[in-house]
Design goal:
Helix content: 55-70%
Order of helices and strands: HHHHHHHHHEHEEHEEHHEE
Shape: elongated
CATH class of the largest domain: Alpha Beta
Strand order of the largest sheet: 2-4-5-7-6
Number of helices: 13
Distance between the termini: 61 Å
Structural class: alpha+beta
CATH topology of the largest domain: Heat Shock Protein 90
Strand content: 5-15%
Length: 371
């Protein structure tokens, strides 16, 4: 009977995967953030391995794991690592995916009659071992991500703090030199503002990650003027690389502080990942009942498979991880939070030869913020 069950499992593999994916999209909240390929990832391999176990009546006990089932162990870890890499997934959601898989397998295989107790035990043991392996790897990857984030955070916060302390010491030693004191005080204020912005980005990105909407103060303002102010400030820091394409003074009720920080983050990212010395274009225009804001830079494209994950907390693209540019993986999470607070949308277009465009669409007039 075991050989028959193995053959049935292989024949029904695609049906099992389809039913499992359909249920996951309905029952696992974070499954909607994964691409179809990433959602299935290691499961075809897992089902092949389970078919082999059914064909040989091999139960997934401890001795079997050690001597024969290294591949099963690797597959479970592959699934756990993938889910940990998707910042929206929680451990409970990953475990739920396996529970759904167990139910789907039994539903499909027992549609033509009940399984023998041995085959049921093999499937249950296999699922249990896969959950354990995936959970261990999920926790390991999360711990590694958090440690790297803490290390980067500590380093980045120390820089403006150390600079402010240095200039404070200069003031203490230069009380008879007013010009030096004024210059040093200005430097202290700049570095403390940097520190404050980092802390606010961290807190706000965490709120977005927790599913909260950012609480922005909406005031009347000119979006074109706001954009040009940010560009002027970024030009002082990064040089004359920015090109503003805007011919409209969009007067409205905006979360101006949030939009300022969102634009700063997009321009900062464009500077980090663009080809040096190439222009960075910021476009603003009215489009029907919306305002369109585009930040475009030339440079290596973002991999298409990575685009759905760009706005997740602590998530950075492969190029960002492999490059020399520091970062927390919070900036784009904050940007999306600001756009969501304006009832808008943001998406990314990135291709070799044409560069990368972050496109924000905000309804205009802006709907009142949700209480």
């Amino acid at each position: 009977m075991s050989g028959i069950d193995s053959v049935r499992l292989k024949a029904k593999k695609e049906l099992i995967l389809s039913l499992w994916e359909e249920r996951c999209l309905k029952e696992v909240l974070s499954a909607g953030t994964a691409t179809p390929l990433a959602l299935r990832n290691s499961l075809p391999l897992y089902l092949d391995h389970l078919s082999e176990a059914l064909a040989t009546n091999r139960k997934m006990d401890f001795k079997s794991i050690l001597n024969h089932d290294e591949e099963s162990n690797r597959i479970g870890k592959l699934h756990g690592a993938d889910r940990a890499g998707n910042r929206s997934y929680a451990l409970t959601e990953m475990i739920l995916e396996y529970h759904i898989l167990r139910e789907v397998i039994f539903h499909v295989l027992e549609n033509e009659g009940p399984l023998a107790s041995l085959q049921r035990d093999i499937i249950l043991d296999s699922i249990e071992q896969a959950v354990n392996d995936a959970a261990v790897k999920f926790s390991e990857v999360h711990a590694d991500i958090q440690q790297k984030f803490i290390n980067t955070l500590t380093h980045d916060l120390k820089n403006p703090l150390s600079a402010a302390m240095t200039y404070a010491e200069i003031i203490r030693q230069s009380t008879d030199k007013p010009e030096v004191c004024r210059n040093s005080a200005s430097r202290i204020i700049i570095n403390l503002r940097r520190l404050d912005a980092m802390i606010r980005d961290l807190l706000d990105a965490s709120r977005v990650r927790a599913g909260e909407q950012l609480s922005l103060q909406f005031i009347d303002g000119n979006l074109d003027a706001l954009l040009r102010e940010v560009v002027d400030e970024m030009t002082v820091i990064h040089g004359d690389r920015f090109v503003v394409d805007s011919k409209v003074a969009v007067e409205g009720n905006w979360g101006c502080d949030g939009l300022r920080r969102a634009i700063e983050n997009l321009l900062g990212n464009a500077v980090k990942y663009s080809t040096p010395e190439t222009p960075i274009t910021i476009s603003l225009r009215r489009v029907a009942t919306s305002v369109e804001l585009i930040v475009h830079n030339q440079g290596p494209p973002i991999l298409e498979a990575e685009i759905p994950y760009l706005f997740q907390q602590y998530r950075r693209s492969k190029a960002a991880h492999e490059g020399t540019q520091p970062g927390w993986g919070l900036g784009l999470t904050l940007v999306k939070g600001v756009v969501d607070a304006h009832k808008g949308t943001i998406h990314v277009e990135s291709k070799a030869g044409t560069g990368t465009r972050f496109i924000i669409m905000i309804p205009f007039p802006v709907p009142p913020p949700t209480e």
